[in-house]
Design goal:
- With 242 residues, this protein is an alpha/beta fold.
- The protein has helices at residues 10-27, 39-45, 65-75, 91-94, 109-122, 172-178, 222-240, and strands at 2-6, 32-36, 53-56, 80-85, 101-104, 129-134, 137-142, 146-152, 155-160, 165-169, 185-189, 192-195, 199-203, 206-209, 214-216.
């Protein structure tokens, strides 16, 4: 588990790192931490999948902790945000960013231990990330943030929810093998796989994605593909109501 601590007070970072280290040993949970004393330094290191949890102080860089939370959430749905600050007054606004918890300083070692134990139970498994090499860099993206993939010979184009595109040496079959267990992916045409959570609509033999891309669907399988999407969305709705 990788944890970022964003706080403009170095002592506050050291205290949290100490408590997290204690919890790591007691819970037998491997954890690596990284401290950042400004929003700018954190954002230069942040990308979806790098940190599982971000402990975030609201009163940093002229009180723009909430703005930073907005940037995190815009980039990643899965990064867990935990506010750790000195006042309760921003609590209602903070939870607009789907924060996992809101801690008021000073925090205790026991509180951090319980919090990390709870977080471990709900965080996506490391297997929920696709890891690949693009432009000689290793990239790791949560499957949930992929919009679509398209085969180009021996290479694969991948589109991420934030608009970034990547090309990697991988076949569609290899991708689907890596994504085994991820029910969200659907092959709609030769070499084209879409994330059903990111489908905007299916009509007139075309599949429109939330990023504006429109793909043609196999004509003979158009009705079946649309039905599979509808069934998936119904299942997701039912799961959310449990």
């Amino acid at each position: 588990m990788n944890i970022a601590i964003v706080d403009d007070e170095p002592e506050a970072i050291k205290t949290l790192e100490k408590y997290i280290s204690q919890a790591s040993k007691e819970l037998n949970l491997p954890i690596e931490t990284a401290g950042f004393t400004s929003s700018e330094s954190f954002m230069s290191a942040f990308s979806p999948g790098v940190f599982h949890i971000v402990f975030l102080d609201i009163y940093i860089d002229d009180n723009d902790g909430l703005q930073l939370a907005g940037h995190i959430r815009a980039e990643s749905e899965n990064t867990m945000i935990i506010f750790c600050t000195t006042s309760r007054e921003n609590m209602p606004e903070a939870f607009r960013y789907h924060a996992f918890d809101y801690l008021v300083k000073p925090v205790s070692a026991d509180r951090i231990k319980v919090l990390l134990s709870d977080a471990q139970k709900v965080l996506p498994s490391i297997n929920h990330y696709l890891t690949f090499v693009s432009n000689r860099q290793e990239i790791r993206i949560p499957y949930s943030e992929l919009v679509w993939t398209q085969s180009q010979g021996h290479y694969l184009r991948l589109k991420r929810r934030n608009g970034d595109e990547y090309t990697t040496r991988m076949t569609t079959r290899e991708f689907m093998t890596n994504a085994t267990g991820e029910k969200r992916f659907l092959t709609i045409n030769k070499g084209i796989v879409v994330n059903m959570d990111r489908i905007k609509r299916i009509e007139n033999g075309n599949c429109s994605m939330t990023d504006g891309t429109v793909f043609p669907i196999k004509v003979r399988q158009s009705a079946r593909i649309e039905q599979l999407w509808q069934d998936y969305m119904f299942d997701q709705l039912r799961e959310g109501q449990r």
